[in-house]
Amino acid sequence: MISKENVHKQLTVGEVAARSGVAVTALHFYESKGLIKSQRNAGNQRRYPREVLRRVALIKVAQRLGIPLAEIGEALKILPEDRAPSAADWKILSQQWRQELDARIEQLTLLRDRLNGCIGCGCLSMEACPLRNQGDVLGEQGPGPHFPKD
Ligand code: FES
Fold this sequence. Notes:
Blueprint: E1 10-11, H1 13-20, H2 24-32, E2 39-40, E3 46-49, H3 52-64, H4 69-77, H5 87-118
Bound molecules: FE2/S2 (inorganic) cluster.
Residues 117-118, 121-125, 128-129, 131, 143-145 line the site of FE2/S2 (inorganic) cluster.
């Protein structure tokens, strides 16, 4: 329950939506996933602390980077709940996500390069196609179909 002195510091879900640019349904979804928290007022309506705005901003940026919500939730767990994420918090999270983004870019670049070899081929062979062959044994010999040597 919200104390009387905090009642004016709280935001309704509509106010959070208007200030953050995030739909009410998305805010409810974030809450259902534990990414943000609200309290109930005397009328049993959700009220959010103002700090939630920075949390929502952080969630949106992370989503734009392609970070899965579950991972964002794990990252947010390390942040104190009684204050907005600080610049220092953001530095830690953004450095971690930067490394993940670099790794994803590297993987996607590799996949793109392998796809180049598939364009115009069409074999989709489990043995020869580097995009189908998880071990990529024959794919290491270059693009296009390869036939096992006797
Ligand atoms: S389609 Fe991928 S190597 Fe043929």
